User: Fold these one by one.
Assistant:
Number 1:
Amino acid sequence: MAMGSTTKKHPRDLSDAEVERIVADADAALERGDVQVVDAVVLRELRAAAALRRDAEQRVEAAVLSARHAGASWGLIGAQLGVTRQGARQRFERLVDS
């Protein structure tokens, strides 16, 4: 995958291997000079924040599964997440069905 190419997946749906490939492609582009970076610290911070977000998403998904298995309704789950019942169901129902 070349730097600047796009993916049709949502970032939270990327596998670890896909994320690692994207990062490696970005590193290679930096080394070739294809991308100019004023401060690499900014990119490191962005990567760290993205890793934390992935971890948080996995934690939320696990908590939603636990809540559903414990009998919580989509309305109750949505309220805990600050979204509607329908929003919670649409976002997480695939986890419960798989």
Number 2:
Amino acid sequence: MERNGKSPEITVYTTEPCARCIRAKDLLASHGLEYVEVNLAKDPVGRRDLVKRTGQMTFPQIVIDGRAIGGFEQLVEADERGELEALASPY
């Protein structure tokens, strides 16, 4: 997850109800990272498109700078490696 000196573009694909979706958004927010939420609860076409894009059928799905990183567990792993802090850093 390279920065190139600019804010990352983060999209969080969610559904309802989804505790992991809430936790993923909270984790991003705790680092001051802004994101766009796309709720696919009532959008079967959007869900199919997401599966084509990410290869996953679970929620949430997180895409950072056009790269699908996975779901909540993968986001936590990225946080543990310090990648979220690096994304939040202005340097």
